[in-house]
């Protein structure tokens, strides 16, 4: 496991298999489009933060990635769509520079499709067979956060895995993207804004706790 320095600023451009792309204006929006094009706006915003964290964490741990080694596109990394819709561009813009951290270090920010949810909150079909990787960390923090089996469970950056379809269902119920992200990655996840050098997670740590308690009841029925 490589432990590099935490970046203070996001790169303007990154090298991908689709060529050199602007991180914020092209890469993140196109990943949102490639991974979950028709999601609710709040689910898109949550995915934009997860996708940005995922690629920058990978670049932090592998210094040639995105610089001289092209970032791949596909299910084993993140899917880069040929283009992005206005909604995907907006999701990237409104979350610009924000990454997820735990104790000051970027997390792995795994995310998969997961199972679809029915209107009543029950689990539906799991066509991609990826629900097994999704974690529900309602109200959990510290060592109580459940890591995903998609990565090494003892990895300090393993704070769980977001389910894209679960996230979309939650957004449709009115949950904002920060509450959604805490549900999958833990209540103590930190929202850090690169470039500004400030953490926006601690001062908002209580936001959504009541909502998490309510949705936790639904989750536990699954």
Short overview:
With 222 residues, this protein is α+β, with helices and mostly antiparallel strands.
Describe this structure in words.
This protein has one domain (13-220). 33% of the residues lie in helices and 12% in strands. The protein is built from six helices and eight strands, in the order ββαααββββααββα. The chain has a four-stranded antiparallel sheet. The protein has a two-stranded antiparallel sheet with strand order 1-2. The protein has a two-stranded parallel ribbon with strand order 5-6. A hairpin with a 4-residue loop joins β7 (190-193) and β8 (198-199). It is globular, with a radius of gyration of 16 Å.
Question: What secondary-structure arrangement, pairings included, does this model have?
Answer:
Elements (H helix, E strand, L loop, with lengths): L12 E4 L2 E4 H14 L4 H21 L24 H9 L3 E5 L2 E2 L3 E3 L48 E3 H9 L4 H9 L4 E4 L4 E2 L9 H12 L2
Parallel strand pairs: 5-6
Antiparallel strand pairs: 1-2, 3-4, 3-7, 7-8
Helix pairs in contact: 1-2, 1-3, 2-3, 2-4, 2-5
């Amino acid at each position: 496991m490589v432990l590099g320095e935490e970046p203070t600023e996001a790169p303007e451009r990154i090298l991908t298999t689709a060529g050199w792309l602007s991180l914020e204006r092209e890469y993140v929006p196109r990943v949102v489009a490639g991974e979950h094009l028709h999601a609710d706006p709040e689910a898109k915003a949550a995915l934009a933060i997860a996708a940005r964290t995922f690629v920058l964490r990978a670049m932090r741990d592998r210094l040639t990635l995105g610089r001289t080694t092209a970032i791949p596109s596909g299910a084993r990394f993140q899917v880069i769509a040929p283009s992005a819709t206005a909604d995907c561009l907006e999701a990237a813009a409104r979350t610009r520079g924000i990454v997820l951290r735990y104790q000051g270090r970027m997390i792995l920010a795994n995310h998969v499709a997961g199972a679809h949810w029915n209107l009543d909150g029950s689990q539906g079909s799991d066509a991609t067979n990826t629900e097994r990787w999704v974690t529900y960390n309602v109200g959990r923090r510290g060592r109580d956060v459940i890591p995903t089996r998609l990565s090494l469970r003892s990895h300090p950056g393993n704070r769980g895995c977001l389910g894209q379809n679960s996230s979309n269902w939650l957004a449709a119920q009115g949950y904002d993207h920060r509450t959604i992200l805490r549900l999958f990655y833990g209540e103590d996840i930190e929202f850090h804004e690169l470039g500004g050098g400030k953490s926006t997670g601690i001062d908002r740590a209580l936001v959504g706790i009541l909502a998490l308690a309510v949705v936790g009841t639904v989750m536990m029925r699954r």
